[in-house]
Amino acid sequence: MRLEHRVAVVTGAARGIGRATALLLAREGARVGVVDVVPEVAGTAEAIEQEGGRAASLVFDIADPVRVSEGVEALRQALGPIDILVNNAGIVGNVAPVARMTPEAWEREIAVNLSGAFHMIQAVIGSMAERRWGRIVNVSSVAALGGLHNQVGYAASKAGLLGLTKTVTLEHARDGITCNAVLPGLIATPLVTAMPAEIREGAVAVTPARRLGEIEEVATLIAFLVSDSAAFINGAEIPVDGGLRLNAASLGSRKEASAVRRTP
Ligand SMILES: NC(=O)c1ccc[n+]([C@@H]2O[C@H](COP(=O)([O-])OP(=O)(O)OC[C@H]3O[C@@H](n4cnc5c(N)ncnc54)[C@H](O)[C@@H]3O)[C@@H](O)[C@H]2O)c1
User: Fewer CB in a 10 Å sphere around the end CB: N or C, the chain?
Assistant: First the structure.
C-alpha cells in the first residue's frame, strides 16, 4: 500500500468525487478525515471502517476560517498530524449570465470553492512544513481554462485555485510539500447525471472521449499525486477530462454544442 502511516483529509467527502477519493486513499492505507457540510459524510467514514480502514468524520463549512481551524485540530487529535489534504468541496451556486448573477451567489462560490481551499491549506501547511512532507491537491475544473457560460463565479473560483496552487508550490516545494491541481471535465456524479438530457448530451458531444468520466478516474489521479511516487510533480494543472478542455469554449452553450454534434 502506498499511503501507509499517512493521514489524509478530504473535503466534500459525503458523496461524488470526494467520497470516491476518501475510499481510495483509505484502501491505499491512509487514515482519512472526511469533511462536509452535510451529516451524510458520516456514511463515508463508516464505509471506510467497514473495509477495515480508519476514518473520522466532521461536519463544518470550509468557508468559515474559525470552524476550519477548530475542525482541522479535532481531526489532528483523532488521527494524527495531517500529511495529505484534498480540497475537493465545491458548489455551483447559481447559473446565470454575468449581467444577472447576484453578488451573493458570486461571493458564496468564491467563499466555498476558493477561500475554503485557502483556509484549509493555512490550517495544515505549517505542520507539513515542520515535518518536511506534505501533499495538497486542489480540485479545480476545466472551467478554469476556458471559462463557462452562465457560471462566472464558478469559473473564476476554479481559475483562482490555479493561482493558489502555484503559489503554495513556489513557497513550500523546498519543504517537501507538493501542491497540484486536478481539472476534471464532466464526471458522472448525481449532479451531472441529473442534468437535462439535452445539456448532458451536448457536453458529451464536445468531449473527445464521447463519454462522461467516472469518479474513480479522478480519485485514481489524486491517489497518485499524494503518493511518494509523485514527489517531483509540483504546481501542475492536470486535466482528467477525456480531452474536453480542447473544446471547453463550447461547454455550456447549447447552440454551439448542437453545432458540434452536427459536424461529421
Ligand atoms: N462532477 C463534475 O463533472 C465536476 C467537474 C469539474 C469539477 N468538479 C469539481 O469536483 C469537486 C467535487 O464535485 P462532485 O461532482 O463530486 O460534487 P458534489 O456536489 O457531488 O460533492 C461536493 C461535496 O462538497 C460538499 N460541500 C459543499 N459546500 C461545502 C462547504 N462549504 N463545506 C464543506 N463541504 C461542502 C457538498 O455537501 C458535497 O458533498 C467540486 O469541487 C467540483 O467543482 C466536478
Answer: C
Residues with Cβ within 8 Å of residue 12, at least 6 apart in sequence: 18, 35, 36, 88, 89, 90
Ligand 1, residues 24, 37, 85, 244: which to mutate, most atoms within 8 A of Cβ? Answer: 37
Give SS3 for 62.
coil
Q: Residue 24 — φ and ψ, nearest 5°?
A: -70, -40
Q: What is the CATH number of domain 7-187+214-242?
A: 3.40.50.720
DSSP 8-class letter at 115: I
pLDDT tens, 22-61? Answer: 999 999 999 999 999 999 999 999 999 999 999 999 999 9
DSSP β-ladder status, 7-11 and 31-36: parallel
Rg (CA), the chain: 18
